[in-house]
Every structure is written in C-alpha cells, then in structure tokens.
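note to self: the first set is below, dont mix up w the second
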Amino acid sequence: MKLLTALITLLCLAGCASKKPIIDKKGVDLAVYQQDLQECQTYAAEVDKAGKVAGGAAAGAVVGGAIGAVFNGSRGASRGAGAGAVGGAAKGAASGEREQAQVVKNCLRGRGYRVLN
C-alpha cells in the first residue's frame, strides 16, 4: 500500500510539469499571451486529477484482483489487486493530464489564438 501511495504522489507531481501548447505567434503580443495562458492554466487546474487517479486505481484493483484470483486464488487476488491499482492509477493520471491540456487549448482557442498542437 505504501508503494501505491508513493506512486500516486509521483504521478500527481509529474503532472505539475505539463507542457505548454504551441501557438502561431505571428501578430501575437507575447505579454498578453502569457497572461491568457496563466488564466487558462488556472481553469485547467480545476480538473479533478486526484479523482481520476483514485478512480483508476480502484477500477484497476478490481480487475487485477479478479484476474489474480482466477489464476492463484486469494494470494493471486491480493497481488493482482495491487498491480491493477498501480496500473489503473497511472492510467487515471494520464487521463487527467490529457484533460487539463485540452482545457488549456480550448481556452486559448476561445481567446483567438491558433493552437498548433
């Protein structure tokens, strides 16, 4: 369980270093763009990444436990649940990252920027 908690914490911290979108800078006031980008990133921070990580871990634990039980009884269920939880947490974290990036891009497009990626 300690390993799972450490992994989830690392995944959430890794999300703090999200990549900036690439925009067409022709005719763009970069000072205004930086202000808009910061505001859009604030909106993106409202995405419930922790909930996605927890939901992914729970779903992964259920599936992993069921598969482990089929192959190795209760001992396999325990190990399978742990492995499934870690994999599910990683998948949930990735999903949260993608959603945050999409919120930033949508926000910038709404403010008139041409987002290239």
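second set (the one i keep forgetting abt)
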Amino acid sequence: MMSILGKIKQLPVGYSEVSYKNKKYGVTRTDFNNGKSFKVYAEELKGKDFVSLNYYITSKNELLKPCEMRKEKVLDFFKNYKIID
C-alpha cells in the first residue's frame, strides 16, 4: 500500500478532482518549504463534507496534522480516493 506522502504526491499541485465514497471532491494541494510540507484541502462538490490536513517532513520524521477532524477520516480519504481524469 502506498504511503500517505505517496498519495499526497499523486495529487497534482493546485486544483484537481477525485472520487471518494462515490462522490466528487474538489482538491487543492499546496506545497511549501521546497516540498517539505504540504497542505491538502478536499471539499465535496455537491455536499458538505471536507477533508483538511497539513503534512510535514522534518529531519527526524513525518507528521500528519489533520485540521479539525479525526486522523482516521484523513487516512480513509487517502486510502480510498481515486483521481478523476
């Protein structure tokens, strides 16, 4: 299984659309610090659900920081989203 960082990097920088739980989400990926930190915000296009997180790569480890939601929700999103071509 691909890592969370791998799944973040699969998303194009900027805006894209993915399918998650049979619903369409608009996703924005922004990279900071020369690719050492990432912000991802996904919003259900015809609903109210969203997924928001920051991901940091430090000299010692990698940190997943969900924004106002449970870590499990973020992990499920990254495990199951599919990029819409």
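remember for set 2: The mean pLDDT is 96.
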